[in-house]
Design brief:
A hairpin with a 4-residue loop joins β5 and β6. α2 runs antiparallel to α4. The protein is of the alpha+beta class. The protein has two domains: 83 residues, no CATH class; 95 residues, no CATH class.
Length: 189
C-alpha cells in the first residue's frame, strides 16, 4: 500500500524497489528517505496491508474499502463496509449457487451411469444404450434396452427430487446419500 502525505492508496511497489516480502524489504519500504532523490520516492512509503474485514453477514456484500493507517506498526488496516444485497443480487447469487449444486449432482449421477456401464464391459452408458436397437446380438440388445430404461428412470427420479428440494418438500441430501437412492440397474441374465 503506497503511503503519501498521510494517506494510503492502492498502488504497487515500483519495479526498481525490492518487492519481496522479506522482513528487510518490508522495513526498507516503510521509509524511503534513503533513496536517490531522482527516483522521486523519498517522501513515500509502501506498507503491508492487514485485512480487518471479519465474516461477511448473511445477504450482505462487500462495499467501499476503508484504508486506515497504523503508524505505530507501519501497516494499513483494510476494511470494507458490509452493504445489503439488492433483491436482484440475492436472486442472481441464489441462482448461481443452485446451478453449481445441480451441476455437481448431475456430474455424479452421470458418473454413476457410466461406472455401471463400464462394470458391464461397455465404454460408457451411451455405448451401452446404443445397442438397444441392434438385434444382431440379442445379449447386447437386451443389455442396451435395460441400460436405456435404467438411465431414464434415474434421470426422472433425479429431476423429480430436485424439484422437491427446490420447492422445500425435502431436505437437500448429500451427493453420496442421493446416489444411494437412485433406482437399481436390472440387467437381464
Amino acid at each position: 500500500m503506497k503511503i503519501e502525505n498521510g494517506k494510503a492508496v492502492r498502488e504497487p511497489v515500483p519495479d526498481f524497489l525490492d518487492r519481496s516480502s522479506t522482513p528487510e524489504a518490508i522495513a526498507a519500504l516503510a521509509d524511503l528517505s534513503w533513496t536517490d532523490p531522482s527516483l522521486g520516492v523519498q517522501n513515500l512509503a509502501w506498507w503491508p496491508e492487514e485485512n480487518g474485514d471479519g465474516e461477511l453477514g448473511a445477504n450482505k456484500k462487500w462495499g467501499a474499502e476503508v484504508l486506515t493507517l497504523d503508524a505505530e506498526r507501519k501497516v494499513v488496516l483494510v476494511t470494507r463496509k458490509q452493504v445489503a444485497m439488492t433483491a436482484a443480487e440475492k436472486a442472481a447469487r441464489d441462482a448461481l449457487i443452485q446451478a453449481e449444486i445441480t451441476a455437481a449432482f448431475e456430474q455424479a449421477i452421470q458418473a454413476r451411469l457410466n461406472e455401471a456401464a463400464i462394470a458391464a464391459r461397455y465404454d460408457s452408458i451411451a455405448t451401452a444404450v446404443s445397442y438397444a436397437e441392434e438385434p444382431a446380438v440379442p445379449k447386447f440388445q437386451n443389455d442396451g434396452i435395460a441400460f436405456r430404461a435404467w438411465r431414464s428412470l434415474v434421470w426422472a427420479y433425479a429431476y423429480e427430487q430436485l424439484a422437491l428440494v427446490l420447492a422445500g418438500g425435502r431436505e437437500q441430501p448429500t451427493v453420496d446419500e442421493f446416489l444411494a437412492e437412485l433406482p437399481a440397474l436390472e440387467l437381464p441374465v
